[in-house]
C-alpha cells in the first residue's frame, strides 16, 4: 500500500498527461522508489492509477531495464555489453565485477549493497567500456578503476 | 492504380496494396509470419524479403510493408532475396524446440510450411536454446511459448483487434514473452482465435489436442449455429467426433474470426447421450418402422380429431429445408396447423424483423464498421451476437459514437470491447439525417410496434434473431400464417403435436398428446413421444440458414452421422447372446453404429410420401430453388429479392 500523499501526487501526474500511458514510466519509477523495486502489488497499483490492466503495466515494466521486477540491492550496477563496449573488452570488466562482488549477472551481493545487471548501450560509447552505479555513469573502465568506484560507492551510501 | 511487374507478371492493384498482397493476387505466396490481412502491418518477422530490380525503390525490401508503386520490378526468386529469407527463417528457428511430433499444430502449421518454403532445412546452431515457463490460460487454450517466433500476431489480435486487456507481450529482445500478468483463464470472448492466428503451435486448442492430424480430418464448410450472426466455420472431425472447430473467412459476415462459443461449445455434438436410435413405444426399432408408425398415427389422429387439432411444430433450430418441408407436411396431413415458434413474443419479434428488413435498410457488416454512430437498443451484444462486437469496435476505433439505449446494466463478463454512453431513449442519440448510423437490437421478444418505430428512424438496422435460423422461421411463419404453439394451446385449438427439433416447455406439453417427434437431442418432448426418430445436427447435415441480416448461407455435412468411435459402447462390437465377447466379434451390421439419423427434412419427406403427398425430390422448391446453387464457400446471398419476387 502506498501512502495517500504519494497516491495524490501520482494521480495529479497522470491527470496532466495527454494519455495515461505517457505517465506510466513516471508512475512506475515513483512506486519503485517507494518499494525499492516494482512489486506485484506496485504493478497493480500502477494499473489502477493509470486505468490500464496489470498486464498492460507489466508489458511496459518488463520492457525497461531500469524498472526492477525483482528485489535489488541498494545500488544497481548496469554494465554495458553492447557493441562498442564489447569491442573495448567489456567482457573483462564484467568478469572482474563478478569476481569482485562474488555474484553472477542478476545477482545481489550478500550485504544487499549491489545488484549486477548487464545493459544495452548507454550512449557512452566514446568512453567505453562503461557502466552506471546507482544512476551515476562511469566510463573508460579498467579493473583498477572499477575497484575504486566500488569502494567509493560502498562508502558513499 | 499502381502497375508493377512481379516475377515477370504484370500486376495492377489498388493504391495502398502491399507488394506481398499484389504478389498474392497473382498466385505468388511470399513466405510471411507477422503479416495477416486482418491486422495492421508490423514488419516484425523480416521473412517476406523480395528484391526490387528496378523502379522507385531498389534492393532487398520487406514486401508486407512496401506499398506497390508504379514501375516497380519485383523478384521473389532473386538469389539475394532467397538467401535473406533462408537466413531469417534460420534465426527465427534458433530457439524452436523442433517438437513437431508432439505439437498439435503439426500438419496445419504455417511455421512448418514457411520454414521449408523459406529454404531452411539444416540446423547449424549448436548453442543453448532459450526456454520459457508456460502459463495456464484456461480450459480452452494450451500454451507452449518455446515455439514462439515473435511475430506479434497474437498480441496485436488480442489487444488491438479484439480489445482484450489481459494478454499481451512482455519483456524485450530475446526474452519477449506472450502471455498474461498471472496465470489464469483468458478473459476475452474471442481468445480462441489465438489458435488460428498464431502461425506456430504456441496456442493450441486444449479441447481437441492430440486426437488427429490435419490429414485425418473429415471437414467441410459450415455455419455456426449458436446465434443469428451465422459465422463461417470449419468443424474438424475424426472418427465421427467433432474434434475442433476453426474459423473460416467470410468478409461479409465474420471476417477471419469466430467467438469462443463457436469454437469451444461443441460437447453436445459428440454427446454419447444423444438419441441415436428410432424408437417405438419405448423399444428400439428400424427407421422404416418408426416412420410408418408416425405416418399412421398422424393419419389416424386427423381422421378422429380433424386436421386442425393437430399442430406440426418446428423451431429456429431447423434448417431452411426443414422449415419449407414442414409446411408441405402440414398440407399432406390434410391441413394441420404449423408452428415455427413456441413463444408468441419470440414469434412476433422475429416475424416483425423479417418483415421490416429490406435490401436498403438491413445493415451489412461494413455498414456497422463504417458507421458514425451506433445505438445498441436494450442489448447485451456479447451475449446475443458476440462477433458483431468486433465490428462495432472497428467503428468505435474509427471515431464512431456508441450508445446503449434503454439497456440493463451489462454484466462485467460481457463488457464489450468499446466505450459507450448509456442513454434512456433513441431520441437522445444525436443522429443527423443522412449521417451513417446503425441501430442494433434483439428482435426476439420485442414489441413489433417498437421494432417498427426503430425501423422508421432511417438508420441501417441490425435485428438479431432468436436462434441461428430465426430469420427463416420468421419468414415462413409469416408466409404460412403460422401461430406460436403457446397461443394454440391457450385457445384450446390443438390437442396433438408432432415435433421436429422443437423445444416445447413441459408446461405447454402437459395438455397435449405428442404423436411423434424427431430431434437430435433429448428433452421433455422426446421423453413423452411414443414414436421417436433421431435427426442429424448441423455438422452431420447439409442445409441452409438465414442470418440476422437476411443472408442465406449453405452449410455442408462435415462428418458422417453416428456415434463417435471414442468411447463407443461395447454393445456395438460385442455379442448379444454371449456374456463375454468372443474374439474376433462377428456381429454383422450395415450401418454405422448410431448412424440411423437423417436430416430433419428427410424425415419430413418420408412422412409426406407415406401420407400420400407429392414426393419430395428437392426441399428447396419454388422461389427457394434460387438457393439450390448456393456455394458453401461463397459469401452467401441476401434473400430479399427472392422473397419479394415470389
Ligand atoms: S509450431 Fe509448427 S513447427 Fe513448431 S512444433 Fe508445432 S507443428 Fe512443429
Ligand atoms: S505466440 Fe504465436 S502469434 Fe504470438 S508472437 Fe509467438 S508465434 Fe507469433
Ligand atoms: S556500447 Fe556501451 S555505451 Fe554504447
Ligand atoms: S511478413 Fe513482412 S516482415 Fe513479417
UniProtKB/TrEMBL annotation, chain B:
<dbReference type="InterPro" id="IPR054351">
    <property type="entry name" value="NADH_UbQ_OxRdtase_ferredoxin"/>
</dbReference>
<keyword id="KW-0479">Metal-binding</keyword>
<dbReference type="InterPro" id="IPR050123">
    <property type="entry name" value="Prok_molybdopt-oxidoreductase"/>
</dbReference>
<feature type="domain" description="4Fe-4S Mo/W bis-MGD-type">
    <location>
        <begin position="217"/>
        <end position="273"/>
    </location>
</feature>
<dbReference type="InterPro" id="IPR019574">
    <property type="entry name" value="NADH_UbQ_OxRdtase_Gsu_4Fe4S-bd"/>
</dbReference>
<keyword id="KW-0411">Iron-sulfur</keyword>
<dbReference type="Pfam" id="PF04879">
    <property type="entry name" value="Molybdop_Fe4S4"/>
</dbReference>
<keyword id="KW-0001">2Fe-2S</keyword>
<dbReference type="InterPro" id="IPR006963">
    <property type="entry name" value="Mopterin_OxRdtase_4Fe-4S_dom"/>
</dbReference>
<dbReference type="InterPro" id="IPR000283">
    <property type="entry name" value="NADH_UbQ_OxRdtase_75kDa_su_CS"/>
</dbReference>
<dbReference type="Pfam" id="PF10588">
    <property type="entry name" value="NADH-G_4Fe-4S_3"/>
</dbReference>
<dbReference type="InterPro" id="IPR001041">
    <property type="entry name" value="2Fe-2S_ferredoxin-type"/>
</dbReference>
<keyword id="KW-0874">Quinone</keyword>
<feature type="domain" description="4Fe-4S His(Cys)3-ligated-type">
    <location>
        <begin position="80"/>
        <end position="119"/>
    </location>
</feature>
<keyword id="KW-0408">Iron</keyword>
<feature type="domain" description="2Fe-2S ferredoxin-type">
    <location>
        <begin position="1"/>
        <end position="80"/>
    </location>
</feature>
<protein>
    <submittedName>
        <fullName>(2Fe-2S)-binding protein</fullName>
    </submittedName>
</protein>
<dbReference type="Pfam" id="PF13510">
    <property type="entry name" value="Fer2_4"/>
</dbReference>
<dbReference type="Pfam" id="PF22117">
    <property type="entry name" value="Fer4_Nqo3"/>
</dbReference>
<keyword id="KW-0004">4Fe-4S</keyword>
Amino acid at each position: 500500500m502506498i501512502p495517500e500523499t504519494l497516491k495524490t501526487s501520482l494521480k495529479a501526474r497522470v491527470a496532466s498527461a495527454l494519455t495515461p500511458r505517457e505517465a506510466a514510466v513516471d508512475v512506475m519509477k515513483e512506486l519503485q522508489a517507494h518499494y525499492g523495486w516494482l512489486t506485484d502489488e506496485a504493478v497493480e497499483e500502477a494499473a489502477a492509477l493509470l486505468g490500464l490492466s496489470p498486464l498492460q503495466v507489466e508489458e511496459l515494466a518488463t520492457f525497461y531495464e531500469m524498472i526492477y521486477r525483482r528485489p535489488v540491492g541498494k545500488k544497481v550496477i548496469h554494465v554495458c555489453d553492447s557493441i562498442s563496449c564489447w569491442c573495448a573488452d567489456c567482457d573483462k570488466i564484467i568478469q572482474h565485477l563478478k569476481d569482485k562482488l562474488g555474484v553472477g549477472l542478476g545477482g545481489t551481493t550478500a550485504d544487499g549493497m549491489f545488484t549486477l545487471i548487464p545493459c544495452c548501450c548507454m550512449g557512452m560509447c566514446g568512453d567505453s567500456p562503461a557502466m552506471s552505479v546507482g544512476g551515476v555513469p562511469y566510463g573508460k573502465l579498467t579493473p583498477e578503476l572499477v575497484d575504486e568506484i566500488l569502494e567509493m560507492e560502498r562508502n558513499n551510501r | 492504380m499502381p502497375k508493377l511487374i512481379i516475377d515477370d507478371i504484370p500486376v495492377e492493384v489498388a493504391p495502398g496494396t502491399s507488394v506481398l498482397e499484389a504478389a498474392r493476387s497473382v498466385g505468388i505466396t511470399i513466405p510471411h509470419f507477422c503479416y495477416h490481412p486482418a491486422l495492421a502491418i508490423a514488419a516484425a518477422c523480416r521473412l517476406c524479403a523480395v528484391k526490387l530490380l528496378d523502379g522507385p525503390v531498389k534492393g532487398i525490401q520487406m514486401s508486407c510493408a512496401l506499398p506497390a508503386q508504379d514501375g516497380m520490378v519485383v523478384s521473389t526468386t532473386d538469389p539475394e532475396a532467397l538467401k535473406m529469407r533462408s537466413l531469417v527463417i534460420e534465426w527465427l528457428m534458433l530457439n524452436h524446440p523442433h517438437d513437431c511430433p508432439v505439437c498439435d499444430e503439426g500438419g496445419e502449421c504455417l511455421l512448418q510450411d514457411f520454414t521449408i518454403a523459406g529454404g531452411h532445412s539444416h540446423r547449424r546452431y549448436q548453442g543453448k536454446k532459450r526456454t520459457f515457463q508456460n502459463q495456464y490460460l484456461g480450459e480452452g487454450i494450451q500454451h507452449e511459448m518455446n515455439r514462439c517466433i515473435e511475430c506479434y500476431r497474437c498480441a496485436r489480435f488480442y489487444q488491438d483487434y479484439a480489445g482484450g486487456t489481459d494478454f499481451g507481450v512482455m519483456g524485450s529482445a530475446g526474452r519477449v514473452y506472450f502471455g498474461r500478468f498471472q496465470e489464469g483463464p483468458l478473459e476475452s470472448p474471442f481468445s480462441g482465435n489465438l489458435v488460428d492466428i498464431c502461425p506456430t503451435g504456441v496456442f493450441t486448442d486444449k479441447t481437441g489436442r492430440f486426437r488427429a492430424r490435419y490429414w485425418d480430418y473429415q471437414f467441410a464448410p459450415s455455419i455456426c449455429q449458436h446465434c443469428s450472426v451465422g459465422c463461417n466455420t470449419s468443424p474438424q472431425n475424426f472418427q465421427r467426433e467433432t474434434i475442433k472447430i476453426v474459423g473460416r473467412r467470410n468478409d461479409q459476415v465474420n471476417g477471419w474470426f469466430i467467438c469462443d462459443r463457436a469454437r469451444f461449445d461443441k460437447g453436445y455434438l459428440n454427446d454419447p447421450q444423444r438419441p441415436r436410435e428410432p424408437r417405438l413405444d419405448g423399444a428400439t426399432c428400424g427407421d422404416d418402422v418408426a416412420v410408418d408408425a408416425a405416418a399412421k398415427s398422424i393419419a389416424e389422429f386427423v381422421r378422429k380429431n380433424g386436421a386442425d387439432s393437430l399442430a406440426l411444430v418446428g423451431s429456429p433450430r431447423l434448417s431452411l429445408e426443414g422449415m419449407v418441408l414442414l409446411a408441405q407436411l402440414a398440407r399432406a396431413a390434410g391441413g394441420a396447423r404449423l408452428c415455427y415458434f413456441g413463444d408468441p413474443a419470440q414469434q412476433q419479434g422475429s416475424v416483425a424483423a423479417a418483415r421490416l428488413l429490406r435490401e436498403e435498410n438491413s445493415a451489412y457488416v461494413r455498414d456497422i464498421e463504417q458507421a458514425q454512430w451506433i445505438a445498441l437498443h436494450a442489448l447485451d451484444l456479447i451475449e446475443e451476437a458476440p462477433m458483431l462486437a468486433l465490428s462495432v469496435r472497428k467503428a468505435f476505433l474509427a471515431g464512431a459514437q456508441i450508445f446503449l439505449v434503454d439497456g440493463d446494466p451489462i454484466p462485467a463478463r460481457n463488457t464489450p470491447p468499446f466505450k459507450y454512453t448509456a442513454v434512456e431513449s433513441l431520441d437522445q442519440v444525436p443522429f443527423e439525417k443522412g449521417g451513417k448510423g446503425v441501430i442494433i437490437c434483439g428482435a426476439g421478444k420485442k414489441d413489433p410496434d417498437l421494432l417498427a418505430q426503430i425501423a422508421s428512424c432511417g438508420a441501417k438496422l441490425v435485428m438479431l434473431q432468436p436462434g441461428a435460423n430465426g430469420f427463416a422461421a420468421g419468414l415462413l411463419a409469416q408466409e404460412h400464417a403460422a401461430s406460436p404453439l403457446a397461443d394454440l394451446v391457450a385457445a384450446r385449438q390443438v390437442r396433438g403435436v408432432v415435433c421436429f427439433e422443437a423445444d416445447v416447455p413441459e408446461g405447454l406439453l402437459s395438455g397435449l398428446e405428442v404423436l411423434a417427434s424427431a430431434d437430435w437431442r433429448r428433452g421433455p418432448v422426446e421423453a413423452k413421444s411414443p414414436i421417436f426418430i433421431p435427426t442429424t445436427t448441423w455438422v452431420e447435415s447439409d442445409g441452409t440458414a438465414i442470418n440476422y441480416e437476411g443472408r442465406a448461407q449453405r452449410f455442408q455435412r462435415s462428418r458422417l452421422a453416428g456415434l463417435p468411435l471414442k468411447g463407443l459402447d461395447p454393445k456395438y462390437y460385442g455379442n448379444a447372446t454371449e456374456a463375454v465377447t468372443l474374439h474376433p466379434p462377428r456381429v454383422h451390421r450395415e450401418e454405422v453404429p448410431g448412424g440411423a439419423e437423417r436430416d430433419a427434412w428427410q424425415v419430413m419427406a418420408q412422412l409426406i410420401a407415406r401420407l400420400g403427398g407429392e414426393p419430395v425430390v428437392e426441399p428447396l422448391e419454388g422461389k427457394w430453388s434460387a438457393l439450390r446453387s448456393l456455394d458453401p464457400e461463397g459469401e452467401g446471398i441476401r434473400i430479399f429479392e427472392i422473397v419479394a419476387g415470389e
